Inverse folding.
């Protein structure tokens, strides 16, 4: 992807803070201005919003992904999204000010920012495509396939909100999937 020289790595790393995060810790509360961009070194994180006091999962992110409430981060407006840790983890944190100062002063920062944006857009389009073309069952099975360790750390309501169904519908999908799996194994 990008090969960084020692000097380029130093330029990029001098403004980055390594942060240990504990399960359920919030990186961003709804209504706050997203002042930091995080790159996940370890752990799972949830990007969510709340409608009528009900939490809806936008996405789950893990190792090497970047996460922030992008609209708030860029526009400097209160965030409509929240970010919290699903598991213990480690993130690399860079402030909005430091990131944009680095963009202005170092070409390598702009290149890395462009690559990170490209990766984030690819993931966003992949998730949107799945939501628009796959059944609830297929989205559930994809989640298990893509993030088996994550699924065991999630509550039923988190999985259901990510898939876009009720927890009761998720129970029915899991029950049918369990039966289908057992029938194919016999």
């Amino acid at each position: 992807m990008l090969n960084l020289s020692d000097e380029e790595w130093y330029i990029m790393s001098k403004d980055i803070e390594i942060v240990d995060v504990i399960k359920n810790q919030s990186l961003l509360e709804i209504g706050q201005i997203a002042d930091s961009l995080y790159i996940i070194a370890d752990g799972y994180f949830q990007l969510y919003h709340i409608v009528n006091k009900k939490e809806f999962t936008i996405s789950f992110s893990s190792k090497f992904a970047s996460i922030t409430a992008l609209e708030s981060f860029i526009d400097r407006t209160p965030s409509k999204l929240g970010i919290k840790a699903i598991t213990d983890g480690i993130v690399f944190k860079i402030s909005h000010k430091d990131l944009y100062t680095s963009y202005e002063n170092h070409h390598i920062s702009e290149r890395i920012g462009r690559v990170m944006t490209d990766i984030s857009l690819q993931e966003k389009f992949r998730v949107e495509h799945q939501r628009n073309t796959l059944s609830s069952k297929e989205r559930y099975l994809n989640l298990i396939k893509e993030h088996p360790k994550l699924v065991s750390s999630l509550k039923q309501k988190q999985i259901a909100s990510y898939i876009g169904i009720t927890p009761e519908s998720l129970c029915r999908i899991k029950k049918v999937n369990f039966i289908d799996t057992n029938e194919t194994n016999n």
In short: DSSP finds eight helices and eight strands in the chain. Confidence is low (pLDDT under 50) at residues 181-186.
